[in-house]
Design brief:
Blueprint lengths: L1 H29 L3 H25 L1
Helix pairs in contact: 1-2
């Protein structure tokens, strides 16, 4: 069970890292609709917060 938690934590962290990279990509390359980018940034922030809480709760 301990190893599963370790793997889960790594998966969540990798997912968060991927989302941050996606955000940076959207901001730097596309940047067509600024409000759209801000909206995505907020969604990712909420997701990061929720994922962190969830992982901490599973410990």
């Amino acid at each position: 069970m301990d190893t599963w938690k370790g793997v889960g934590r790594r998966v969540v962290l990798a997912h968060c890292f991927f989302l941050i990279l996606t955000d940076v990509f959207l901001l730097s390359i596309i940047c067509v609709d600024f409000n759209f980018t801000i909206f995505f940034g907020h969604l990712h922030t909420i997701f990061l917060f929720w994922a962190h809480k969830w992982v901490d709760g599973r410990r």
